[in-house]
Amino acid sequence: MSELFPLKQVMGFALSIILTIIAAGVYFLDGISFPIIMTILLVTAFIQAGLQLVVFMHAGETDDKSAIYTNIYYALIIALVTIFGTLLCMIWGYL
Amino acid sequence: MKVDQSLPLEYSTEQNKNNILGFWVFLGAEIMLFGTLFAAYFVLADRTGSGPTGVEIFQITPVLIETFILLTSSFTIGLGINAMRKGNLKAMITFYVITLLLGLSFLGVEIYEFVHYAHIGAAITVSAFTSTLLTTLGTHGAHVTFGLVWGILIVYQLIKRGLTPETANKSFIFSLYWHFLDVVWIFIFSFVYLKGMI
Fold first, then answer.
1. What is the value of ipTM here, to two decimals?
2. In 3D, which of A88, A23, A31 has the Cα closest to residue B71?
3. Contact call for residues A90 and B128 (beta carbons, < 8 A)
4. Do B197 and A27 touch (CB under 8 A)?
């Protein structure tokens, strides 16, 4: 039975549950300032995304590892530049 | 067809390796797609016009249910791939079916949520906020719906053909897709719902 529930994946699942609870904490706890909330959310979200990628999607296990990571980093950079570039020219530039 | 026995079944042929890499490139494009949706949402989130704001319409309970359902389904499909690599077809199909049932319940809660929004005056045409919100959520929900259909066809092929290099490859690629949907949801959960509720 235990071979169907490998420790690595069970730990990965437990960690993602914990991170979700920490993130949800910003809603249930009062008196946290906005910058701290955003920091908590950013940290928990990106750790969770990395967890999925490495533990569950087996991104680093095969010969195509570097191609996979290059592709993901490239996509991530484009997405982040799109998001923050849009915020910069549509909102933050006019504060 | 050359089959390399030293590699997991889903990686065993040249075609299989290329399929998997090709799918990662597709997921890269999906990251950019959701990036543009998030960009639009963040800019327009405060443009509520005469409609309701995020704080007024978001409810924590269905959102938490959706999050835990999707996290669990991501875990069970991971166990499915583990069972596949151990050659245990029966356990693999069981995990895949559990995953699809969880996906279906996720969709049920999301549909309830959308009906509720429409009911309380937050339909897609009300304001810039509701249009970008429902477009972002809806694009994710449409991906889950497509994933359900795809997953059912995968399970059907597994039952019919058993574990071959092809079916293993298709199942692995489907698991990548499913995990990716969970990753997107984590960002929706954090930066649409939680950020919108404080």
1. 0.93
2. A23
3. no
4. yes
Chain centroid offset of residue B127 CA: 27
Q: Which chain A residues are within 8 Å of B39, Cβ to Cβ?
A: 82-83, 85-87
Q: Is the pLDDT of residue B82 over 80?
A: yes
Other beta carbons less than 10 A from residue A21's beta carbon: 13
CA distance B59 to B19: 40
Fold classification of B9-197 (topology level): Four Helix Bundle (Hemerythrin (Met), subunit A) (1.20.120)
Rounded to a whole number of angstroms, the distance between the first and last alpha carbons of chain B is 57
Q: Can you tell me which residue has the tokens 């404080």?
A: B198
Chain B contact present for A57, CB below 8 A: yes
DSSP-derived letter for residue B49 is: T
Q: Is A6 on the interface with B (CB under 8 A)?
A: yes
Model confidence at A3: pLDDT above 90: no
Q: How many CA atoms lie within 13 A of B189 on its CB side?
A: 33
Q: Where are the domains of chain B?
A: 9-197
User: Is residue B13 within 8 Å of residue B3, measured between CB atoms?
Assistant: yes
Asked whether the beta carbons of residue A20 and residue B189 sit closer than 8 angstroms, the reply is yes
Q: What is the DSSP letter of A17?
A: H
Write down the pLDDT at residue B190: 96
| CA separation for the pair B107, B153 (Å, rounded) | 18
The set of residues, in sequence order, having a beta carbon less than 8 Å from that of B32 and lying 6+ positions away, is A75, A78, A79, A82
